[in-house]
Specification:
Number of strands: 10
Strand order of the largest sheet: 4-5-6-1-7-8-10-9
Largest sheet: 8 strands, mixed
Shape: globular
Structural class: alpha/beta
Number of helices: 9
Length: about 290
């Protein structure tokens, strides 16, 4: 991953899509300060978190929470649901008496649709969808400004996915927070996010309002949009030839060039920059620069 410039402003929610290996998870780990970058900066407000000592990061870790793809693996199996949900409050500045802490746990569990009386049960006693709700309750209990969701709805039944998306939408409205929503599900992005960022080969290739996805400019984004299932219309499948680039040996020029259906001659020589071509729309494609 290199040259990624991502900004979240106001109370917007941003969807981040791209095929496996494009750098999405690496970006999330950098944003969460689980890894340190070899270059570049990560700002939260006016504070560069890469330069913060661990003690000063406590505020940032309270303001930015995460819901990981494998909820079961992200919850300590030796903790009860209530203990896991309370953990962010115990690891951030401020003290809570036992009664107040229990009240906040019950409030968070109720908010995500879990029975507060189940707080003494262990993670393995919950279904997959309920484990995601535990992870979400843990994320919102500290009232963060940003929640990073890594494939938060993947692997769930369609009905459970819909319930979780509705829940995420309701929580966002009720708490005035932002989401960075990483997913392969474009329908989920349409529902939850106002802006879409598309990554390929470790770089952002397009950024656009979600409502304009049908008018995408970059050929990779176009292929993603056309590959979305449509139960109301019969259409031929869109298959991109070739394989994603090897991160250890990116091709010269545009990283999508070997798979592009209609490349230009310069695409194989020069890497296109990400530039704004319309208000709120950025693309890295020589055809549109």
């Amino acid at each position: 991953m290199d040259g990624v410039n991502l900004t979240l402003a106001g109370d917007e929610s941003v969807g981040l899509v791209g095929e496996s290996g494009c750098g999405k998870s690496t970006l999330l780990r950098l944003l969460l300060r689980l890894e340190k970058p070899t270059g570049g900066e990560v700002f939260f407000g006016d504070q560069n978190i890469n330069e913060c000592p661990e003690k000063k990061l406590l505020y940032y870790r309270r303001e930015v929470q995460a819901v990981f793809q494998d909820a079961a693996a992200s919850i300590n199996p030796r903790m009860t649901a209530g203990q896991a949900i309370a953990e962010p409050l115990l690891n951030t500045p401020g003290s809570f008496k036992t009664a107040a802490l229990k009240a906040k746990v019950r409030e968070a569990m109720t908010q995500v649709g879990l029975n507060p009386d189940s707080s003494n049960r262990y993670p393995h006693e919950f279904s997959g969808g309920q484990q995601r709700r535990i992870a979400l309750a843990r994320a919102i209990i500290a009232r963060p400004r940003l929640i990073i969701c890594d494939e938060a709805t993947s692997g769930l039944d369609v009905s459970v996915q819909a319930q979780l998306l509705n829940l995420l939408q309701d929580i966002r409205k009720g708490n005035e927070l932002q989401y960075l929503f990483v997913t392969h599900d474009l329908a989920a992005v349409r529902y939850l996010c106002s802006r879409l960022v598309v990554m390929y080969g470790g770089k952002v290739v397009e950024e656009l309002p979600t409502a304009q996805l049908a008018r995408a400019l970059h050929p990779y984004t176009v292929a993603l949009a056309l590959s979305e299932p449509d139960l109301l219309h019969i259409k031929d499948p869109v298959i991109l030839e070739g394989e994603p680039p090897d991160p250890a040996a990116f091709p010269p020029g545009c990283r999508f060039y070997p798979r592009c259906p209609k490349p230009l001659e310069r695409c194989g020589r020069e890497l296109p920059p990400l530039k704004e071509v319309q208000t709120g729309r950025l693309v890295a494609c020589w055809k549109h620069l």
